[in-house]
């Protein structure tokens, strides 16, 4: 079995950009712009190295989920399909995906991405790919605007994967950022894909394979 992160690893697309495009396309541009403007100062500070970048990204994603509050389960699925088809899939790293599919093993996608988006990407990838993303809370078939159990990144992503594996062998794992190391360390063959500086240093120190994506 193979595990892979998605954003930055299998695609250079980003869910929040896809959501922004979807909201513009469906008459919600002002709603998204207001949310973006409120978070812009924090984004600038995080990019400049003030505070924890990952914590800011998680808060941003939790806030972005709230923009979809009130949608039905079917509507959420449709948003996921739209974001995957219009943002993530067109920007996919084709050589990395070809390598995954070429291994001929079951694939599990492990990502902080919202579950409906990740499921849509998994469907496009095919081969019975499983999606382990950030679950969204539904009540009576309607999205509350909240995520379940926090954003699945870093240790929580690895914990979710470990639970899914339930003792099964993980032959390889692919990730691109330092927080992905929790997941990579579960695999016999960790692969750092176009890694950020932190993961690059760790991969070199541990002798992990480094894959530069085209």
User: What's the number of extended β-strand segments?
Assistant: 8
Structural class: alpha/beta
How many helices? Answer: 9
Cα shape: globular
Major beta sheet summary: 6 strands, parallel
Unreliable runs, pLDDT <50, ≥5 residues? Answer: none
> In what order do the strands lie side by side in the largest sheet?
3-2-1-6-7-8
What value does the average pLDDT take? 92
- Name the beta content range: 15-25%
Order of helices and strands: EHHHHHEHEEEHEHEHE
Helix content: 40-55%
Radius of gyration: 17 Å
N/C terminus separation: 24 Å
Q: How would you characterize this protein structure?
A:
- The strands form two sheets. Strands 3-2-1-6-7-8 form a six-stranded parallel β-sheet, with helices on both faces. The protein has a two-stranded antiparallel ribbon with strand order 4-5.
- The chain has helices spanning 15-25, 29-47, 53-66, 73-88, 94-102, 115-125, 155-165, 181-184, 197-206, and strands at 2-4, 107-114, 130-134, 136-139, 142-147, 172-175, 189-193, 209-211.
- Helix content is 49%, strand content 18%.
- The two termini are 24 Å apart.
- It contains nine helices and eight strands.
- Helix 9 (197-206) links the parallel strand 7 (189-193) and strand 8.
């Amino acid at each position: 079995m193979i595990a892979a992160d998605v954003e930055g690893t299998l695609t250079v697309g980003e869910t929040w950009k896809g959501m922004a495009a979807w909201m513009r396309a469906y008459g919600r541009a002002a709603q998204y712009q207001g949310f973006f403007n409120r978070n812009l100062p924090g984004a600038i500070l995080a990019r400049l190295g003030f505070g924890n970048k990952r914590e800011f990204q998680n808060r941003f994603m939790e806030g972005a989920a709230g923009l979809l509050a009130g949608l039905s389960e079917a509507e959420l699925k449709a948003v996921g399909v739209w974001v995957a088809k219009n943002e993530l899939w067109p920007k996919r790293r084709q050589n990395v995906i070809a390598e995954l599919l070429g291994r001929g093993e079951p694939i599990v996608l492990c990502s902080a991405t919202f579950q409906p988006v990740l499921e849509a990407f998994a469907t496009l990838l095919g081969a019975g790919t499983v999606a382990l993303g950030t679950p969204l809370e539904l009540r009576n078939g309607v999205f509350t605007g909240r995520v379940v159990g926090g954003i699945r990144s870093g240790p929580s992503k690895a914990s979710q994967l470990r639970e899914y594996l339930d003792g099964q062998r993980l032959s390889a794992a692919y990730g691109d950022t330092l927080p992905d190391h929790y997941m990579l360390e579960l695999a016999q063959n960790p692969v750092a894909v176009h890694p950020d500086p932190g993961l690059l240093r760790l991969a070199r120190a541990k002798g992990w394979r480094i894959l530069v994506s085209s």
